[in-house]
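Support request from a user on the community tier.

User writes: "When I paste my structure tokens into the form, the page sometimes reloads and wipes my input. The last time it worked, I copied everything first. Here is what I submitted, just in case something in the input itself triggers the reload:"
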């Protein structure tokens, strides 16, 4: 495979750095650190470009906090400095995006713009509806995926694709910036690097194990085939592949194989049955809790409006979603009302931004 070069010039290109700054501040331009960065955007962009071209750029230490998820899992989240670290992460990933996408498995749907869980759901719905030969499903996921990623292995994988030493040096710095092992949850670069880490594994599953249907969402994998024994052999072969190639990751012990219509597949926020797809119970309860809080308080905050608008999107992709919205949600608060709340607040923020940037008297 021909390796790619001349990437560092693209990373250091001033237009790429401008774009990275815009991406970093997108959706949070009302925050003071973002306002300071945008106010002197040209100064900061040329400063970063000079540092990168001189080769003396050093990534700083990240902040950390613990996040407890709704399922009870506790995760350590890393927060790099807004400038220059987050801008550098974006600048690198904007240039490497084509490289990542070129070799990416088509049904890897996690943290990929334009795909996401809905693309995976549609693919599984299609499998259930059109291929009656599929009898068995295997579901597995990787144990402590992000913390288990080996730096040396990830660097080795990058060196198979890239020959530009300056780019590799910068990638190495990002990989090593938050510890000796694992990728930090919270870095924009981590989601791209993690998907890249599993790229060869995806191709091994499809091209060497010849699994008929395979979907991956980050570290969650689902495989479908006609033969139960074939899936068992695939699991053993995958374990051996990970060990022999020094990936440092292992499959959780709770992996399962079952007859496809004996029970539903719980994946991507939905439950897939033979003739229907339902929303996962926890997601439905989250929607109804938000709606009930609005009903109880008699008003809707901007934070809740944004959250509920996002959650209601899940209902658009199940047959019973419209009835659920019309009967349970719309009498309390409609999608139109939620959109109005978000729009009004965003307009106020934009007016403040105009005053800040242009000295407008609006």
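"...and here is what came back when it finally went through:"
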């Amino acid at each position: 495979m021909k390796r790619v070069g001349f990437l560092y010039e693209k990373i250091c290109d001033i237009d790429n750095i401008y774009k990275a700054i815009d991406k970093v501040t997108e959706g949070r331009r009302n925050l003071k650190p973002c306002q300071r960065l945008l106010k002197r955007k040209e100064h900061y962009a040329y400063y970063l470009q000079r540092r990168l071209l001189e080769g003396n750029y050093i990534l700083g230490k990240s902040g950390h906090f613990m996040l407890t998820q709704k399922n009870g899992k506790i995760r350590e989240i890393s927060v790099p400095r807004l400038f220059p670290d987050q801008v550098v992460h974006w600048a690198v990933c904007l240039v490497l995006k084509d490289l990542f996408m070129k070799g990416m498995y088509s049904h890897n749907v996690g943290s990929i713009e334009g795909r996401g869980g809905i693309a995976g759901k549609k693919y599984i719905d299609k499998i259930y509806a059109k291929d009656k030969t599929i009898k068995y499903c295997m579901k597995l996921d990787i144990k402590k995926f992000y913390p288990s990623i080996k730096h040396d292995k990830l660097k080795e994988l990058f060196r198979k694709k890239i020959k530009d030493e300056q780019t590799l040096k910068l990638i190495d710095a990002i990989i090593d910036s938050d510890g000796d092992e694992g990728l930090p949850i919270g870095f924009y670069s981590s989601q791209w690097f993690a998907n890249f880490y599993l790229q060869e594994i995806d191709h091994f599953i499809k091209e060497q194990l010849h699994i008929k249907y395979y979907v991956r969402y980050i570290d969650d994998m689902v495989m479908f085939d006609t033969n139960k024994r074939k899936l068992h052999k695939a699991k053993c072969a995958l374990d051996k592949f990970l060990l022999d190639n020094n990936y440092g990751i292992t499959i959780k012990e709770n992996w399962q194989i079952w007859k496809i219509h004996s029970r539903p597949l719980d994946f991507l926020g939905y439950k897939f049955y033979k003739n229907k797809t339902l929303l996962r119970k926890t997601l439905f309860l989250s929607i109804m809790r938000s709606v009930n809080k609005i009903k109880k308080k008699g008003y809707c905050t901007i934070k809740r409006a944004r959250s509920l608008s996002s959650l209601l999107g899940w209902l658009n992709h199940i047959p019973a979603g419209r009835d659920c919205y019309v009967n349970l949600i719309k009498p309390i608060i409609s999608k139109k009302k939620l959109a109005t709340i978000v729009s009004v607040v965003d307009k106020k923020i934009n007016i403040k931004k105009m005053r800040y940037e242009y000295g407008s008297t609006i």
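Agent notes: The reload is a front-end session timeout and is unrelated to the input. The beta strands are 63-68, 74-79, 136-141, 213-217, 220-225, 256-259, 265-267, 270-272, 277-279. The mean pLDDT is 89. Escalated to web team.
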